[in-house]
Write the structure tokens for this entry.
Amino acid sequence: MVRAYNFSSGPAMLPEGVLEKVQSELLSWQGSGMSVMELSHRGKDFTGIARNAEATLRRILDIPDEYHVLFLQGGATSQFSMVPANLLRDQGADYIDTGIWSRKAIAEARRYGRVRLAGTGERCGFSCIPEPGSLEFDPDAAYVHYTPNETISGVEFSYVPDTSRVPLVADMSSTLLSRPLDVSRFGLIYAGAQKNIGPAGLTLVLIHEDLVGEPVAGTPTMFDYRVHVKNASMFNTPPTFAWYVAGEVFSWIEAEGGLEEMGVRNRRKAEKLYAHLDNSDFYKTAVEPGSRSWMNITFALADETCNSAFLSGSEAAGLKNLKGHRSVGGMRASLYNAMPEAGVDVLIEYMREFERTHG
Ligand code: PMP
């Protein structure tokens, strides 16, 4: 059996060691005679798995005690609504527009009330992150929302916006757990799991206890953070298997050296690929140097008529899902935690050879 290097933006690669452990426990989890998929979410076996996963996540991210950790469903997309339903209130909120994902969050927030644009990547056609000095925050906003890493275009904040006392809300779907993070800078962090966290179907929310309050009238029960906090994310049946696998991913990160080590590896992988792009006339990236994502590296071939040959050749070489998002075209290599550096080396070798034969 040969494992492919899967450069998908998500669902993405999981660490091989995690998949092997899950496989070894698939039919009978720790002698229970049952798969985790068959365990009651209210039984002591699964509640133990759930508690352990949270404890490990708290250790690796060093999450302060004043934050609740929620294991929800509905993807980051549901958070686009859940955040304003719970937090927007009469003051309105500030949003930073850096690309497709932040605009989707903005569109949902507008259904709940006033949204101001505190900054935008328009200056460079959204191939850069706005400079810190260009951001203008309303000191009375209920919160500031931003997308630290835009998965589709591959732009990433190299800084955490300073919003003074206004709570900062971040869609960290494609960057959470890729490096160390000071959680105390944020009021709320959310992320769909299918990149650095675990299987699709699970959504992580870290929320400061002060932000858990009454949502706007008419909010569905499932969209009320208070309900999930009170029920420890077990108000209804949670995505048990995804939660368990995420716990195994957290343990893998810890055993590999934690987020410090993830950051070192991720920076090295990204810098290697960007260096290759910068040193070639055949490949180019539109993203400005100070805004380059470590997680999603977008690039184009100088001669776009070679795109399909590039993609069919890469698929045949075991380098999967390099096609860029349909809205931007070109190529995208997503290099999340589970992508080994060897995968980047093989990709660069493939690119070099492709350039030699098609350049
Ligand atoms: N935000 C970002 C930054 C994303 O990358 C994605 C998914 N690729 C989403 C939101 C939507 O996530 P989901 O599919 O989990 O709803």
User: Anything to note?
Assistant: The pocket of 4'-deoxy-4'-aminopyridoxal-5'-phosphate is lined by residues 9-10, 75-77, 101, 147, 151, 171, 173-174, 192 (CB under 6 Å). DSSP finds nine helices and 14 strands in the chain.
